[in-house]
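Anyone able to model this chain together with zinc ion?
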Amino acid sequence: MLKKIVKWTVLVIATLVVTLATCSSTIFAAATSKPTPSWGAWDQTTITYKTNTSSSYYKSVWKNAVKRWNKVGVVQLKAAKSGEKADITLTSSKSLSTKSGKLAGYTNYSYLNKGNENEIVSAKSTLNRSLLTKYGYTKNQRTNVATHEIGHALGLSHSSSKSSVMYASDRYASINHQDKVGLEDAYND
Ligand SMILES: [Zn+2]
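re: yes, here you go
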């Protein structure tokens, strides 16, 4: 008899937790439905890249991040043939210090301003190996940072949504629906 009561109490608590979770996710979805903003776009949707790092570990991190963007289906990132100049260079650095302080990753780009829009002509994304190691980033979290940097190289800006891969300071998020819609907005005009 006593066992039964205990079981029932556990069940009530479990139900309560589920209800709370449903509530907060509804509020969250409503507050963050804006597409990820963009600052520019490439002229074409097939964009070449090369990984310029001697580390096979970071080659694989970049390769996984490239796969994620290709899966979205808006642009196609293709490895540049040897000797061919790549649109985007993906690399890693032992350390990285910038004006904005210590960053997990960084993207430089050049673009042409064409009135209302910016046409990206080259980009280079770098991962900061020492910082990622110092703060114990897992391989998946490093892939999230790599995905964020490629997002900049494709023209996306920061999102205020924590579930977006383009949230400024986060290692946990990957590409979400807002990022997909933001990329579509940038390329399907
Ligand atoms: Zn960023």
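The first strand starts at residue 41 and ends at 42.
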